[in-house]
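Problem 12. The chain below contains 113 residues. Write out its predicted structure in token notation.
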Amino acid sequence: MYAIFETGGKQYKAGKGDVVFVEKLDSEPGKAVSFDALVVSDGDKVQIGTPVVKGVKVRAKVLEHGKEKKVVIFKYKPKRNYRKKQGHRQPFTKIKITSIAVAKENQEEAAAE
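Solution.
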């Protein structure tokens, strides 16, 4: 079973137990966070939300915060003595997916089909 969820303007595909690096969240390490699922797949059954699947939450635990490796931006114009060096480190949050919670009514509808 996997789900696609959105956070920080990006979409991520994850299953139970997966470790995912997402945009930085305002939550301390060890705390639980949840996201609305856009798509949920359980083998042959796929549920697509408009825009989210009702009653489905992706629950995760925050493991740590950090920064990516440095990206160096170097601007240079020949014959003009123009050199500009700049660096950037994107912050991230490392989360572990603990569960994909499906509401009881969604499970009954899927079983009826």
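Discussion. Strands lie at 2-7, 10-15, 19-23, 32-42, 45-48, 56-67, 71-77, 82-88, 91-102. Students who got a different answer should revisit the alignment rule from Section 12.3.
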